[in-house]
Amino acid sequence: MIEARFRLAYPGFTLDADLSLPASGVTALFGPSGSGKTTLLRAIAGLERVPGGRLVFDGEVWQDERTFLPTHRRPIGYVFQEASLFPHLSVRGNLEYGMKRRNCRPASADFAHIVELLGIGHLLERKPERLSGGEKSRVAIARALLSAPRLMLMDEPLAALDLARKQEILPYLERLHEELEIPLLYVSHAPDEVARLADHLVVLEAGRVIAQGPTGATLAHALQPRAKRGEALADMAGEACVEFATAADLPALADLLAELFTLESDFSPARERQLAGLKQILDEPSLGRLFVLRIGGQIAGMANALITVSTALGGKVLLLEDVIVAAPFRGRGYGRRLVEHVLGWAREEGFLRVTLLADRDNAPALAFYERLGFEPSAMVVRRKRL
Questions:
Q1: Hey, what CATH topology would domain 241-385 get?
Q2: How far apart (Å, rounded) are the C-alpha atoms in residues 288 and 303?
Q3: What pLDDT band is residue 240 in, cutting at 50, 70 and 90?
Q4: What three-state secondary structure class fits 56?
Q5: 326 Cβ partners below 8 Å, 6+ apart?
Q6: What average pLDDT is seen over the chain?
């Protein structure tokens, strides 16, 4: 049994949680962004010191009014949102670092078993810079497991991955659940992840526990009131997720474009052309990227970005053609999140400028883009240097 009681006040936010959790299987901490999931996990790890808090793991007191076991003495493995691998070490070196942190604790699984379990044997001699996002996540999980933890903590380990990488890593997490007898606290705002992985669910909202129990019934109960009000399930799941589109997204993206251009909703030649154009971008990454805004697994927006080369600037320029948020989700900050994600990606990829095609008659859109730092350079074009 894990007993956790924490009360921590910040300006505008208070975490107030009193929990008794099973010391086996997967327990998910679930709720919208800002609900206190990560703060609670950090308190359990000892990374967030909470005066007056209490934490008991399997009969051992880790924190009470007289005791505070520091993080490095708690037998935990912690996986952050970012993999945080040592860039100067190979995968093998990162894993061996995890083994050095055992502090004489017996290993629940040996090196070869963990490597096989997470399918990273062929990556051992690579440096982190040569790994995909999903591979980095698997290595980070392996490193944490090799420290011989008695409790695993994972803070949205799939949040930074696109849909394809998430689908790649979920089966490995399921294998860990099946083969290793290590309790896991798993933070997520994605209902599909929680339903697939967790045995027990804790739902947080505004720093308070509003429900807990077996995953199936608790998740259905937590989401049902929002569904009845006609809101997206992701209002419970938290902030929007922006990621690269996949082939399965194309029909929904064509529908969004049809909404933008007021095309016919049936499969007209215009929609067919839109599908063909989107598929070409998806099939040829050198042409550009398609970004999707997902809310609870539902596509709520998109951005269509084309790649060009400017001889005047001497480098790559991104042409942002279509930025669309579906009508039910407008006016809630999702458009800004979508554009800011694209701008962040463009900076990381070395683009010198993002040029946006904007409708000169759409005054609200032009004002929105101006607030994001786009400067008008023609009647329908706005540019932003990166």
A1: Aminopeptidase (3.40.630)
A2: 11
A3: low
A4: strand
A5: 256, 259, 299, 300, 301
A6: 80
CATH for the stretch 2-231: 3.40.50.300
Distance CA 47, CA 288 (A): 41
Instruction: Give the E-state strand segments of the chain in sequence order.
Output: 2-10, 13-21, 26-30, 54-57, 60-63, 76-79, 151-155, 184-188, 200-205, 208-214, 241-244, 288-295, 298-310, 315-325, 353-357, 375-378, 381-385
Contact (CB, 8 A) for 16 and 9: no
Q: b/e for 296-330, b at 16 or more Cβ within 10 A?
A: beebbbbbbbbbeeeeeeeebbbbbebbbbbeebe
How far apart are the C-alpha atoms of 77 and 358, rounded to whole Å? 48
pLDDT tens readout for residues 242-291:
888 888 888 888 777 766 654 334 444 455 776 777 888 888 888 888 88
Do the domains spanning 2-231 and 241-385 agree at the CATH topology level? no
Instruction: In whole angstroms, give the CA distance from residue 134 to residue 150.
Output: 24
Q: What whole-number distance in Å separates Cα of residue 267 and Cα of residue 264?
A: 8
pLDDT in tens, 198-211: 999 999 988 899 88
Distances (CA, A) of 376 to 100, 126, 307: 56, 45, 20
11 exposure class (CB count in 10 Å sphere: 0-12, 13-18, 19+): exposed
**Which whole number is the average pLDDT over 12-39?**
88
Domain boundaries, the chain: 2-231, 241-385
Find, among 134, 193, 132, 137, the residue nearest to 165 by Cα.
134
Predicted confidence at residue 219, as pLDDT, reads 79
Rounded distance between C-alpha atoms, residue 125 and residue 338, angstroms: 36
Alpha carbon separation from 48 to 37, 112, 255, 279, 289 (Å, rounded): 12, 34, 45, 47, 39
Q: Do residues 157 and 124 lie in contact, with contact meaning Cβ atoms separated by under 8 Å?
A: no
Distance CA 105, CA 256 (A): 55
* Dihedral Cα 185, 133, 33, 337, nearest 10 deg: 180
